[in-house]
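Protein Entry — a single chain follows
Next Lines — sequence and tokenised fold
***
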Amino acid sequence: MQKSYSMKASEISKKWYVVDAEGKVLGRLATQIATILKGKNKPEFTPSMDMGDFVVVINAEKVALTGKKEDQKEYFSHSGYPGGDRFRSVKKYRAEKPEFIIEHAVKGMLPKGPLGKQIANNLKVYAGKDHPHAAQKPEKLDI
């Protein structure tokens, strides 16, 4: 009889990866980043644990959107008060906070709840080419 192997928290090893988002399509980029963050690319994947690696995304301001999403896509938020719904366009976020576009897409693909929030902390997104994670010696990841 075979037994399933489940890793312990002390056995998990994490790597750092750098992804250049320049010219990449948002959805396709986000799915692959979410897979790495969750750890599904590893043979010892355990669904109930934070097995994934750290991902640093650079050039977030240059991520591509297909079709008319650049003009028509809107992000929704609500203040909690009556009539407090707010819609913001992709153009506005790209000008003010371009990191949000990638963070929002990836977080939507992660599990909901405490584990998903913990995994989302392993994603670091920067608008330009520079990032402060050189000391971790991240590997370049071609997506």
